[in-house]
Amino acid sequence: MRSSYTYPIGTPGQKWGDAERIAWREQTTIKREYQQEVVPKIKALAERFNVEQYGALSYDPERYPLLCIKSKQWDAAKPTVLITGGVHGYETSGVHGALLFADEQMEKYSQQFNIIVAPCVSPWGYETINRWNPLAIDPNRSFYANSPAEESANLMALVATIEGDVLVHIDLHETTDTDESEFRPALAAREGIEYIEGMIPDGFYTVGDTENPQPEFQAAVIASVSKVTHIAPADEQGEIIGSPVVQHGVINYPMVKLGLCGGVTTCTFGTTTEVYPDSDKVTNDECNRAQVAAIVGGLDFGIEQL
């Protein structure tokens, strides 16, 4: 494992200032287009669901409208479900898995739930295939009051409009090889700390909330996904990405304390999914369908609790 690494931007041991953040942003490039790959899929659902704009990114408001999909059969007596994807824009199956769920499963589950799907919280990150936003801020560490990330602030504003409690929140993510080849080294450089190489788990896992772990709910999600793709094993230390495995394929994080999207509601049942798209055992379609399976497993469990 590498314990010494020099990132091409910044001075080792010193936190980034504005100049380094600008240098980082200037080396990013557009690699795919939100308006071509995501927005048309959202708008195609407008006949079956309510498609609403809940904000826009100031970097380019016309290019980056923030869109959500809501079930039409909205009923205050029903519990509410929130599905989020693309908080880290580069995590592709989070975006397209959310859209696939909306297309194939959302009508069915709208009979029991009010459902809101925000499929691409960070469209600039989607286009540039980045974990951060243009200010070198991680939206998934920025879900707190007066957030410095407008991606997070806009989603929190959307959540604030939800009447009543959210029963289920499923936040769709990926863990990729580029986490170790690019994003974690960049984080160490930005913070002026040493980069210690970690290990990417081969397979799907979930992250529950340390303060509200709901192990039976997590197990239902894992069981559903295991029908589609393989579940990540624990490493030799009994961990996944440095956290203890509390049950097969499950670790826990303190969602609110870390400013994670998984803590954006006070839901009863919540999980963050982690697909591994770089495995030679899966296809892109299987990654998308693993995300759908996670949602379906979680919602089926939720129905049993009603």
TrEMBL record:
<feature type="domain" description="Peptidase M14">
    <location>
        <begin position="30"/>
        <end position="306"/>
    </location>
</feature>
<dbReference type="Pfam" id="PF00246">
    <property type="entry name" value="Peptidase_M14"/>
</dbReference>
<protein>
    <submittedName>
        <fullName>Peptidase</fullName>
    </submittedName>
</protein>
<comment type="similarity">
    <text>Belongs to the peptidase M14 family.</text>
</comment>
<dbReference type="InterPro" id="IPR000834">
    <property type="entry name" value="Peptidase_M14"/>
</dbReference>
